[in-house]
Design brief:
The chain has one domain. It is mostly helical. It contains 2 helices and no strands.
């Protein structure tokens, strides 16, 4: 569980660092992580 939280935090940092330039790619990756979390919890 901690690994997933750390991964999400790192993605948040990537999103804020890259700004609008790559935000869509980062958001897609973030959504993939959330979806995989839901699958693991289900």
């Amino acid at each position: 569980m901690k690994f997933l939280l750390l991964l999400i935090v790192r993605i948040d940092i990537l999103i804020s660092n890259k700004g609008s330039e790559k935000s869509s790619d980062s958001v897609d990756l973030y959504c993939d992580v959330l979806n995989s979390r839901k699958r693991n919890n289900a």
